[in-house]
Amino acid sequence: MVDSQTRFEELVNRLREQGYRLTPQRMALLRLLAASDGHPSASHLYDQLHTQFPTTRLGTIYKTLNLLKDLDEVLELGFSDDDNRYDGNKPYPHPHLICVRCRKIMDPEVKLAQDLVQQVAQQSGYQIVSHRLDFYGVCPDCREGE
Ligand SMILES: [Zn+2]
Ligand SMILES: [Zn+2]
Predict the structure, then answer these.
(1) Relative to the alpha carbon of 135, which ligand is closest?
(2) Cα 95 to averaged position of ligand 2 atoms, centre (Å)
(3) Strand bridging mode 85-87 / 96-99
(4) What is the mean pLDDT of each run of 10 residues along the chain (146 residues)?
(5) So what's the pLDDT on residue 59?
(6) Model pLDDT, residue 104
(7) Among the bound ligands, the one closest to the CA of 99
(8) For position 137, what pLDDT does the model report?
């Protein structure tokens, strides 16, 4: 995981060089995305921002998320049965650990994915452009409550 302060500064610079206005509200959103704590959904981000900035709109959050997605600065994880989740800390494809109880999403510290991508590319002759690898389980916090 990238240090969230470093990542926050990267995101700020990226938007600044694109000429986007950096309101305090947008800065706060970038800070949350840079930390990517549990891989929040847009409504989760909204809940966190709304207490600090009561004028926050869900639409504004989606606008910034889409903007960052176009710049390849945020990774979007779509789910058929749940809200999309976002990782602004590591915007490139990487494995995820998903808790089936609390829906927290973590990044396991494994190198497996890159080896797997190379193997698949070699065996199939495909040029791999993206991949998705999700592990489902029960997180330590939820296991403790058992
Ligand atoms: Zn959990
Ligand atoms: Zn992630």
Answers:
(1) 2
(2) 7
(3) unpaired
(4) 91 95 95 95 96 94 96 96 94 94 92 82 94 94 89
(5) 96
(6) 95
(7) 1
(8) 97
pTM exceeding the 0.85 threshold for the entire prediction: yes
Neighbours of 76 (CB within 10 A): 14
Compute, in angstroms, the gap from residue 82 CA to the centroid of ligand 1.
Answer: 15
8 Å CB contact between 34 and 1: no
- Calculate the alpha carbon distances from 4 to 13, 103, 145 in Å: 14, 22, 29
* 103 CA to centre of ligand 2 in angstroms: 13
Q: Which ligand is nearest to the CA of 139?
A: 1
Ligand 2 centre from 106 Cα, in Å?
6
- CA 51, chain centre distance (Å): 21
Give residue 2's pLDDT: 78
Burial class of residue 45, CB neighbours in 10 A (0-12, 13-18, 19+): buried
CA 40 to centroid of ligand 1, rounded, Å: 14
Written as six digits, the tokens of 143 are: 């296991």
- pLDDT confidence of residue 110: 78
